[in-house]
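Worked example

This section walks through a single chain of length 451. The input is the sequence exactly as stored; nothing has been trimmed or padded.
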Amino acid sequence: MRRALAGVALAVTSMVALSFLIPLALLVQSEARARSTTEAEQRASALAPVLALTTRSRDVQQAVSGLDSERRLAVHLPDGEVIGDRHAPASALARAERERETLAMDTDDGWVYLQPVILAGDRVAVVESFVPRSALTRGVVLSWGVMSLLAVGLVAGSVLVADRLGARVVRSSRELSRASNALGEGDLGIRVEPAGPPELKEAGRAFNSMADRVVGLLATERELVADLSHRLRTPLTALRLEAERMGSAPGSERLTAAITHLQTEIDSIISAARSPLAVGPPGGGTADGSGDGNGDGDGNGDGDGAASGDGAAGSRCEVSGVVRRRVEFWAVLAGQQGRPCGLDVTDEPTPVRLPYDDLAAVVDALIGNVFQHTPEGTAFAVEVERTAGSVVLCVDDAGPGIADPDLALERGVSVGGSTGLGLDIALRAARTTRGDLTIGRGPLGGARVRV
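Given that input, the structure is written out below as tokens.
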């Protein structure tokens, strides 16, 4: 590109320079010739008054010497005497004397001007003024040289400027190309510093925006894998509790071991899905996340299940209905473990802009953490209430509570020995619907998670 821009600048500037240089060169040559011939004509005209007064050789010679120190003037007297050096052809002299009119002509040596002067007695004297060829072009070569140098300087300057501009464009283009190749090879941290012409700056900003979006999409996809994997915890928990209820029945130990192995594999999938990318998706919903609800008590801290913001924009569901169905599921397991289970659901409409599956994942994550992080026999209660501008879901337990609520809300950080994704499902679901999540002490004495 640099070579192309330099070539264009060279061609355009050369044509412009030549379009001015050639006419100027001809004009300089013409002006130099006109100046020399005008001086010759003036010298010849200056002798006319002298010849009108006298034709004596000595007087005319004195006048010629006073007007011409370079021996370019000559006077042809009527008696045939010539004062000065003769350069004009005899035929031209005869014609000027005969026709009594001025003549100007080019000769082999230069240029000659003949001016007849009519004297008394109808006699004619002819004044000859000669300009050598060197005088006709005096200063022309120097002027041409100066103009040529100026033209060369102009062309060289334009080529240099075009090369610098081309280098700037090429440098920005190469940087953008290098970054694009690096991004294609998997370097997600590559970015460019927008530089160069406005178009390339805009392209650089667009590349950075695209790279950020790619990183965000990849992070979102990986978090989604972790969320979907975490949803398997709910049926696994139920299956594990069922296996424990079997006691010493044949095959119970093998079933329990298989469930434990499957749960370990799910934890590995969640960790592997989250480990490659440290950058969360744009918007900040996934990077903060949710620690495991508590190592001690409540139930929340692992599983991030689902409340992604994707289909939430157009899907709605009734919180009361979803909570009733999920509590009915967990009530069976609670009865097996001797856990008192309370449910208080308002009769008012409780619509939220969230898909059914995402809301069910929120409820399962919160209740599942109660089962995972509190001992058997610990009571818990679920409450749904309607306020003036929102729907509130509360999960209380009678466990030891959450010692560090802020730490529990950090995604991937567990205070209870799990994957550390639990509260993030509820937190992200709340933020998707422009709500929030808080952790505190409930009326049962343990943790209260309020969404």
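What to look for: The chain is about 55% helix and 15% strand.
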